[in-house]
Amino acid sequence: MTYRYAELAGARIAYRASGSGPALVLMKNNRRPPDFPIADQLAQQFRVLQIHPVGFGAADRPDEYDIGNIGGQVRTVLDHEGIDRFAIWGFSQPACMSAIAACSTDRATALVMGGVTPIGFPTDGEMRRLEREPRLPRPALEFWRSYRTYDWHHELRLYSGVKIAYIGTEDPAIRRLRKLKPVLEGIGFTYLEFDGLTHATCGLGDASAAGRRVARAVVDCLISRGVGVSG
Description:
The protein has helices at about 40, 70-80, 95-105, 125-130, 140-145, 150-160, 175-185, 210-225, and strands spanning about 5-10, 10-20, 25, 45-50, 85-90, 110-115, 160-170, 190-195. It is an alpha/beta fold. The protein has a single domain, classed as Rossmann fold (3-Layer(aba) Sandwich).
């Protein structure tokens, strides 16, 4: 499997690129699969960049690194590819990575967050459980510590690009996200639910017809908001 690399602060960010058109960043936190199953579908319309930030996936894992500098890492890859404007999409933890990247620059035209509660996560109790989890890799723990330093209601309200949040109705987070729906819509999010889908079947890693249905719906929503219509 072939990765490209861009370096920031002495560490390599890994990524894979495909397709042509407006840039669409897919954030990844795992090496496998090397490509999201829907990447080929999206590459028919977008220049798709699947980015592994430092500490995750195929990227470097230095002993010391600013794991929270996701925005700088995404911009480094885009500059390496000669890309200015981009949309960014993540599911679960990578959705939170995407939020950091989108809110760090005026170059991001759209932010798509799937399978996660954008505001108020992790809670204090959830963070304490993460701190006690012996199997949680250090970069993941450091990332969540960094994510919690932001006031996400404020950051997402200020972000002026297209904002989409989505979830499957069988995802355990659905109750929390439904309670948050009025807040999200109040700060400009389009909110989508996919009936009968679980956290796994609603994700970017799902290769089934359900996963492709989710991708089509999200892309249609982006296009309706003017994202991906032109280069």
